[in-house]
Specification:
282 residues; alpha/beta; Carbamate kinase; two-stranded antiparallel sheet; 21% strand; globular; disordered C terminus
Length: 282
């Protein structure tokens, strides 16, 4: 079966993987190699660069349980950093290695329709308005992705979305990737960060996370806020019939190589994609 006829792979890249030129080039090379095997779609964040830009502008970051509160000023920064700086840099790096990448956001061609997130119930019991934060509504149009991959391009999608009235929202990149993967019929979702998969209390990679393990990691407070988002997103992808859902160490240059298993956690949880009650640490 040729690469053009194979089901795509969605790769979610944490923004920290693309901050340094050497690491960016390694990531770009991995995308080009993967695209030679099967169509690949990239979804990326860029939270640390957003933080740095906000600090440069004298804006104060506000967050709750690791979730960014996105007011109008913050949204402008997110737009500029994700859709502009980070996205364009990755597209250029892929092109320099012989690939053909096209920069997008979830806004383009109605790719990811979102709804404004409900008020968030924080770990301390308070209710918080997250501002311009969107959750995928599941009724976006993946046609542009299919057109691009069919033509041999690598879509590179910044984690933004719009609602039916054209209002733009910041979207968690893990959540966007997990929503997109089933809608384009992806064979696998690979969530790449800077840790060796999901770690246990001893810092060792957990090989497989099923429903029981996922709930335990969240409810006992072992998983960080960022990892909670990843786990819940991966469970959504599993429920959407994505064949393989992996959380991997994106700093390992072989993280997309066939058969690679070092620092890889396979998520098999198929439970309901709702946030469990998380106990506060004493």
């Amino acid at each position: 079966m040729t690469a053009a006829k194979r089901r795509p792979t969605v790769v979610k890249l944490g923004g920290e993987l693309m901050e340094e030129p050497v690491r960016l080039r390694a990531i770009a090379r991995a995308m080009v190699r993967q695209a030679a095997r099967s169509p690949v779609v990239v979804v990326h964040g860029g939270g640390r660069e957003v933080d740095a830009e906000m600090a440069r502008l004298g804006l104060t970051k506000r967050a709750v349980d690791g979730l960014r509160i996105t007011d109008a000023q913050t949204l402008d920064v997110v737009l500029g950093v994700l859709a502009g700086r980070v996205n364009t840099r990755l597209v250029a790096a892929i092109g320099a290695l012989g690939g053909s990448a096209v920069g997008l956001t979830g806004v383009d061609a109605g790719l990811t329709r979102v709804q404004r997130a409900r008020r968030y119930r924080a770990a301390d019991g308070s209710s918080v308005d997250l501002g311009f934060v969107g959750l995928p509504s599941g009724n976006g149009s993946p046609g542009i992705i299919e057109d691009l991959t069919r033509s041999g391009h690598i879509p590179v999608v910044a984690s933004l979305g719009a609602d039916a009235k054209g209002r733009i929202y910041n979207v968690n990149a893990d959540t966007l990737a997990a929503d997109l993967a089933p809608r384009i019929g992806a064979d696998q979702l690979v969530v790449a960060g800077t840790t060796a998969g999901v770690l246990d209390a001893d810092g060792q990679t957990i090989a497989t996370v099923d429903d029981h393990t996922l709930l335990r990691l969240i409810e006992d407070g072992h998983a960080s806020a960022g990892m909670v988002a990843k786990l819940l997103a991966c469970r959504t992808a599993c429920a959407g019939d994505v064949n393989r859902v992996l959380i991997v160490d994106g700093t390992d240059r072989q993280f997309l190589a066939p058969g690679w298993s070092r620092g890889v956690t396979t998520v098999t949880a198929h439970g309901r994609a709702t946030r469990p009650t998380r106990r506060r640490k004493p």
